[in-house]
Amino acid sequence: MTSFFKRTLLACAVAGVSACGGSNTTSNTSSVEAAFTDRNQNGVMDDYENPALDVTSRAKNLISLLSLEQKAHLLTGTGFQLNNVGGSEKVPGAAGSTFAIPELGIPAMVLADGPAGLRISPTRDNDTASYFATAFPIATALASTWNTALVTQVGDAMGEEVKEYGVDLFLAPGMNIHANPLAGRNFEYYSEDPLVSGLMAASIVNGVEAHGVGTTIKHFVANNAETSRMWLDAHINEQAYREIYLRGFEIAIEASQPCAIMTSYNKVNGVYTSQDEVLLETVLRDEFGYEGLVMTDWFAGDSAPAQMQAGNDLIMPGMPDQRQAIIDAVNNGTLLETTLDRNLQRIVETLLKSPSYNDYAYSNQPDLDAHAQVARQAAAEGVVLLKNTNHALPIQSDTKIAAFGNTSYDFIAGGTGSGDVNEAYTVSLVDGLNNANVPVFEPLKEAYTAFMAAEAAKRPPKKHFFELQSPLPEFSVPEALLSDAVEASDVGLITIGRNAGEFQDRKLDADFNLTNAELSMIAQVSAAYHKAGKPVVAVLNTGGVVEVASWREHVDAIVLPWQGGQEAGNALVDVLTGKVNPSGRLATTFPLAYSDNPTATVFPGKPTSEETVKDPYIGLFVGKHMQFDYVDGIYVGYRYYDTFNVPVAYEFGYGLSYTDFSISKVTVQPSENPAEFTIKAAVSNKGKLPGKEVVQVYVTAPAGNLPKASKSLVAFNKTASLQPDSTEMLTLSVKAKQLASFSEQQRAWVVEAGDYTFHVGHSSQNIAQQVTVNIPESIVVENVLATLTPPAPVAEISPQ
Ligand code: BGC
Predict the structure, then answer these.
(1) Angle at the Cα of 113 (from 341 to 281), degrees rounded to 5?
(2) 297 catalytically annotated
(3) Alpha-carbon dihedral of residues 584, 425, 400, 689, nearest 10 degrees?
(4) Helices 148-164 and 368-381: crossing angle, nearest 10°?
(5) Rounded to an integer, what distance in angstroms lies between the CA atom of residue 137 and that of residue 488?
(6) C-alpha to C-alpha distances, 738 to 54, 687, 712, nearest whole angstrom
(7) pLDDT per residue over 161-219, tens digit each?
(8) Residue 74, exposed/middle/buried by CB under 10 A (0-12, 13-18, 19+)?
(9) Does ligand 1 have an atom closer than 6 angstroms to the CB of 188?
(10) For residues 453-472, b (16+ Cβ closer than 10 Å) or e, as one string?
(11) Does residue 727 sit in helix, strand or coil?
(12) Which residue out of 168, 297, 505, 556 is catalytically annotated?
């Protein structure tokens, strides 16, 4: 229905735009007398043009005006050009764009990656301005802060860049589970634990979407390997599927209701996730209450009509044959036009709330200086101190340093592929030392920089933006230079660097495991420094977990700054000098050896046919049809190591401080709702320096009938910076679903009757106090609607 109102043909500069999850109207304009834009130039205010109406009716009205051809366009993106990139003229380098419909005055929406910051081209043709974005710490580093408020601030800074660079939908955060350390995109994801993943993702979503732009949580679901990712079929039994892989998404949706979700490349239990109606309509929407739009990953799946049917609303980057397939399917009666309208409703609601639709006058000038400070703070708080003997750290500001390892001089800010950010600079470890006026042994620096420049010059240029170049060979420091360094410095720093990115998984040799050159560098440098009575500190500038057990005895301290974004060097030096007391804790386990991981022998799956397959559009991605059986079931990460008593190098939740904390006065109070608890714990700083502590609450549930891990994280919280001898009381709450297990038989989440022990402590293995409560009768927390079983049950490991 078209409404006829007083017409003032002004651009509708809508105030208070909220991308998603916000109010249902796109404007705070309450009066129908308000100004509007006659977008289709028909001289009247159609409902979709009326900012005073609710967004649901506006979207319905707009959809009713679309032809089938226009519908097919809005349901698919505008395409892709390799190397620059998604067909957005408005924001070059953005990953994709939706179609504009000029006859209806509908602009394109711009979609750009994530997750470590906004990925757009830093320069533009015939334009002298620059468009750098801030490289924030990678997701794994953010999770290591265990500080959701700080991660929300990071989201806030990201959101300003998204909005001020003219982007509508940020293709982040990523939140798959770290089930195997070789998964190539682990750096883009938070943790091996769904609660940490879900809450971290929600923090980014809330921070970004406060700006009235959208986020996209990805990759839904079980995108846990890169090898043959477009043809990989993950087989997962239902309990593990729900408790581990879906659970983080469910938590994020509950805590932040993101604007968009991106389905993954892979299949789960035989069906592409983007073509799985049960997954998208029943689980995601009906069970989880998700209200936003669902888009595919780029070129994912093999049938556009099946994606439409499944409720995968938007196909990205979008290809002409996909549009044609949708039109043909409607015309030949295999796809209902009402199904398209259902999907369009979710796209158009997002569109109507987007900055592009609302003519937001973006500045192209986000506050990069302020965001660099946020990046530095987050990077420093994400640093995990793994080892610190003989008070090797912190160093005094006049300590003389000699820096070994190529990456000391060329820090890795973040991983490659779509998760790479085009930042203006990266502060290396040595830059950070210089900035803090810590003296660095120059002859060593000169030798490294000359060697690395010569080696880099031998490399062929990158073929694509996402190509992961092999690392430069490690410089072998001549004996004489090493002795000079030992003589001239007080501490030796050795950086081990690793990079990874999408399209390929990491390797065991020379990646998870250190190279021989690195091992001999650690041995030689340590021996030389120790002979002179001086300490050695190892720095792990990695996106993921590496082997440490075989060499850690050589060094006095190990610091894990991960890939800390563009301010990584400054942030690390803040920690090395004690300006920031490390408070990062591992959100992913460091095993003793790769072979200790329960998926070590099955990752990343087995080919199911020998035929080589290629993606049909750009022909760059080659692989095989594969099947990956999730044999570890619910025993992922610490849930496995703990339950199966497998010793690890550094456990989940672990991290040292320069001060000491005690946790005491733990109470566990039941709330009015059954199986919900409030936990209180007093954290005292017993040491000599101010610092922050993370309180972690794990639960051991009764044996009962359902498989359970020996401990699961149910809550965490972080103190403010505590002065020596001061105490903070932390309050944490645990919802019933956190205590529940999924029962395939009962088709429900169930808290089984029995004793529940709450372990409140500093890490998964360093528990300060335990409290046991009894739940006398089983409680069904939630019944489910969908059944999610694999074609044949996966033979899982079992602790018995
Ligand atoms: C990645 C996504 C990304 C998309 C757009 C894909 O290759 O898997 O995470 O958002 O490209 O760049």
Answers:
(1) 30
(2) yes
(3) -30
(4) 150
(5) 33
(6) 36, 34, 9
(7) 999 999 999 999 999 999 999 999 999 999 999 999 999 999 999 999 999 999 999 99
(8) buried
(9) no
(10) eeeeeeeeeeeebbebeebb
(11) strand
(12) 297
Tokens of 487: 């003589």
Question: What is the residue type of 329?
Answer: A
Q: How far is the CA of 213 from the centre of ligand 1 (A)?
A: 19
Q: Is the CB of 156 under 6 A from ligand 1?
A: no
Residue 745 burial by Cβ neighbours in a 10 Å radius (0-12, 13-18, 19+) = exposed
CA of 237 to the centre of ligand 1 (A): 27
From residue 573, alpha-carbon distances to 3, 147, 379, 525, 723 in Å are 63, 20, 11, 21, 21
> How many Å apart are CA 424 and CA 131, to the nearest integer?
9
Say how far apart CA 251 and CA 201 lie, in whole Å: 9
Q: What is the pTM of this model?
A: 0.96
Residue 590 tokens, joined = 């460091």
Q: Is residue 447 very low, low, confident or very high in pLDDT (cuts 50, 70, 90)?
A: very high
Atom of ligand 1 nearest to the CA of 503: 7
Q: For ligand 1, is residue 229 a contact (CB within 6 Å)?
A: no
Number of Cα atoms under 13 Å in the Cβ half of residue 505: 21
DSSP codes joined into one string, 352-387: HHSTTTTT----S---HHHHHHHHHHHHHHT-EEEE
Which 3-state string (H, E, C) describes 611-638?
CCEECCCCCCCEECCEEEECCCCCCCCH
Expressed in angstroms and rounded, the spacing between residue 294 Cα and the centre of ligand 1 is: 14
- For residue 615, name the pLDDT band (cuts at 50, 70, 90): confident
230 lines ligand 1 (CB under 6 A): no
Contact between 762 and 660 under an 8 Å Cβ cutoff? The reply is: no
What is the position in ligand 1's atom list of the atom closest to the CA of 419?
Answer: 9
Tens of pLDDT, residues 56-101: 999 999 999 999 999 999 999 999 876 555 567 899 999 999 999 9
- Average of pLDDT values for 649-661? 98
Separation of CA 243 and ligand 1 centre (Å): 26
pLDDT at 4 over 50: no
Does ligand 1 lie within 6 Å of residue 260's CB atom? no
Determine the distance separating the centroid of ligand 1 and the alpha carbon of 631, expressed in angstroms. Answer: 27
Could you give the residue ranges of the DSSP H alpha helices within 382-464?
406-409, 429-435, 442-458
Name the residue among 75, 91, 65, 95 with its Cα closest to residue 83: 95
Q: What is the chain's Cα-based Rg?
A: 27
Is 115's pLDDT higher than 90?
yes
Q: Kindly report the CA angle at 587 between 586 and 590, in degrees rounded to 5?
A: 60
* Residue with CA nearest ligand 1 atom 9: 418
* Count of other CB atoms within 10 angstroms of residue 116: 35
Q: What SS3 class is residue 666?
A: strand
